[in-house]
Amino acid sequence: MNRHLLSINDLSPQDALGILNTASELSKISDGPMKKLPTLRGRTVVNLFFEDSTRTRISFESAAKRLSADVINFSAKGSSVSKGESLKDTAQTLQAMGADAVVIRHGASGAAQRLADSGWISASVINAGDGTHEHPTQALLDAYTIRSKFPQYQDSFAGLKVGIVGDILHSRVARSNVLLLTKLGAKVSLVAPPTLIPVGVTDWNVEVSYDLDEVVKKVDVLMMLRVQSERMKDSFFPSEREYSRGYGLDLARLNALQEHAIVMHPGPMNRGLEISAESADSHRSVVLAQVANGVLVRMAVLYQLLGGAALTGEVSA
Ligand code: NCD
To answer: Which class is 136-290 in CATH?
Structure first.
């Protein structure tokens, strides 16, 4: 595996499955009496967040701490970045502090790559979301969640049907998921209004549909995406009501899913817009499992990138 995790393209199917398998091992250890492992003791992980985040930042923090790493949280709001300090100066400060891994979230697509290629730091760079480009650890935790719900898809997703619904255009989660799911062999259908389908989608190895009622009947996994209003400078659909009617997961569509199908959402959810409250809270929803699995998968990523000591059940102080 590479020294950095910037894109799902950095991973072969074997690399991705290796991360998921490590996360499974970690889940067995985490279920036992010892919550904390000594594996990354003495290492420093910096969370460098230029965009708001709740679950991703907390998830990385919790993952690093459970491996006994030291964690520095650097949020751009209230830091010298808001006074005009550049990414370069910030990176060099982190380097001087001895960061071993930098987890970066940034509003600009390509920011994580820029940091990794810059030579400003020697740390491993992990992309925690760059603009509308990629969010690889989200795709990995989604794959882990799918695998844990469907044990028949342990080593390949061949035969698995996934529908990804909503604001594909602005979604880094959709991009990383399409790359990973198709890499593992799943068949992916994107469903969205034409205005929210990216231009280059013909190169993505997916089907595109504008009819959610058709797609819900066929899929094993229905992944709903947040409508990313903060990234919309124009109006992409006539009204919220119209969006919900065409592309929201309401009770009727929830009931039209196959018996075994699951509903996913990366959060934060706009209840009442892309997903109704009863769908979000239904027994098919694995939203909270996604959050819990996020910690395990990020532990696995940190462990693999930083080459931690062997995974043992030793309790750390
Ligand atoms: C996603 C993100 O930030 O890209 N959220 C997350 O990481 N849990 C999706 C979103 O914000 O809609």
So the answer is: alpha beta
